[in-house]
Amino acid sequence: MSTGTDAHTPRRTFAIISHPDAGKTxxxxxxxxxxxxxxxxxxxxxxxxxxxxxxxxxDLEKQRGISITSSxxxxxxxxxxxxxxxxxxxxxxxxxTYRTLTAADCAVMLIDAAKGVEAQTRKLFQVxxxxxxxxxxxxxxxxxxxxxxFDLMLEIxxxxxxxxxxxxxxxxxxSSFRGVYDRMSHxxxxxxxxxxxxxxxxxxxxMSVDDPSLPELVGETLWKSTRDEIDLLDAxxxxxxxxAFREGKITPVxxxxxxxxxGIEPFLARFKEFAPEPAPRNSSRGLVHAEDKNFSAFIFKxxxxxxxxxxDRVAFxxxxxxxxxxxxxxxxxxxxxxxxxxxxxxxxxxxxTLVDEAYPGDVLGVFDPGMFRIGDTLLTGESFVFDAVxxxxxxxxxxxxVKDPSRRKQFLQGLSQLVxxxxxxQFVVPGQEHSPVLGVVGQLQFEVLEHRLKGExxxxxxxxxxxxxxxxxxxxxxxxxxxxxxxxxxxxxxDQDNKLVVLFKSDWALSVAERDFxxxxxxxxxxxxxxxxx
Length: 534
Ligand code: G4P
What we know:
Elements: E1 11-17, H1 24-35, H2 43-53, H3 57-64, E2 72-77, E3 80-85, H4 95-101, E4 106-112, H5 119-130, E5 135-140, H6 149-160, E6 163-166, E7 168-171, E8 179-182, E9 187-192, E10 203-208, H7 214-218, H8 220-235, H9 242-246, E11 250-255, H10 264-274, E12 281-283, E13 286-288, E14 296-304, E15 313-321, E16 324-325, E17 329-332, E18 337-340, E19 345-348, E20 351-354, E21 357-358, E22 363-368, E23 377-379, E24 396-402, H11 408-421, E25 425-427, E26 437-440, H12 444-457, E27 461-466, E28 470-475, H13 481-484, E29 490-494, E30 500-504, H14 507-516, E31 521-523
Parallel strand pairs: 1-3, 1-4, 4-5, 5-11, 6-11
Antiparallel strand pairs: 2-3, 7-8, 8-9, 9-10, 12-13, 14-15, 14-23, 15-22, 16-21, 17-18, 17-23, 19-20, 24-26, 24-27, 25-26, 28-30, 28-31, 29-30
The structure holds guanosine-5',3'-tetraphosphate.
């Protein structure tokens, strides 16, 4: 596989955000297929299917050594190298899913045409919004009956508060889905169904929108209604504005079917044009640009190996500026120490490949003997720290009790280490410092925590779930423990940076608190604490 690692190949780094079953795995595979990174679709799906076939996540993790969820897939397309950051979903959904988005320059929001905007898509969309990450929308499964395209766009606009601009428009839906109209080139792209279930690229015929054979090819009625829709869109003056997209103000919308490959190529061709370059990143020294000469990167994910025999971890870093060469010495700013980055890796599905060079937008996985934490800055040249990767509101809360009280010391040591690593978040209830509340975005994080406490610290625990569903970091003059504690809203607690947080039991409790305290700001991410550069 060509990974196009030379310095001159433009990089585009993105993630796919979607609700489970919208077709993320299928679309990923088709992007690889069209990029020439795989030759027959089926391999990624097969790996996923094997993964989901077992309920024992830990056992599978052991067999594989490293989770497929940690993969960063690269594929070339028309002279550009795409880095697709895989965002764990399904039962692997966790804070890592959110953190990964902070390393992407843009997101593809994948929507099932029949189901519209679903819960997990909304959450992931909000995380993208925090950084004004540009979002491209791909409406999938057009080969099946779905919602009316206009209604779907209205739903996206209403629920996500972002303006939709269709870049292409579907011709038919379900069994009559024939192709798309490209609104920028005014061309009709008709797809030819082949009998191999989308394993190979689909034939595409390009025609002028005024071609007289279209009514016959598409069918009189369908062609007439499509023309009416195209005219309606044109009359509404919906032109795509790439600047507004890059500022996160509008989302270009594409239509297709990942399963049959209809619409994949038109999407990729435009995506290559629109997808933003590796973005500058904020730091204690101001914006760090991809063109800056010195190397810099930040760690956005640390993946622990669940196999007891291999205690290694892989730390994932996103290169932000300069260039990286294997074996190079870099400064680990938090530790104030120079380290050599030997044997960094890139990931292609389950395979790891060693990397000699990397450039802004690229992601490297490095063996971590326990020295990396989420948000760490690595660089050459003058020292600074990148803005921290935010902590996101957990959705599941619990308390741990040690089974064997004589192991309490090891428990506290292990817990504090794992909290620092970002495995879980910790909240202290005033007066109950000995028994912190733990919070996670995905239930799986609790399983990982229990597993690692047992495997690495020899501590077995009982997990008691608590009824909270949201954490809100509060600030303002009225943001006090007394205003929130014991008043029925939930619990007033302090996070690991000693910031006041209110844990709510429901959306309703949260909305009552917001109404009762209009001067208090309720944030669903922790305030960024800037560490000093060493
Ligand atoms: P995910 O990663 O987002 O969870 O979705 P995934 O790709 O696994 O797709 C979920 C289901 O939706 C799969 O069906 C897949 O084949 C189907 N799918 C994906 N894209 C399309 C599409 O464009 N059109 C249609 N009709 N279906 C699509 P499944 O029955 O769960 O699995 P399988 O039997 O197809 O393997």
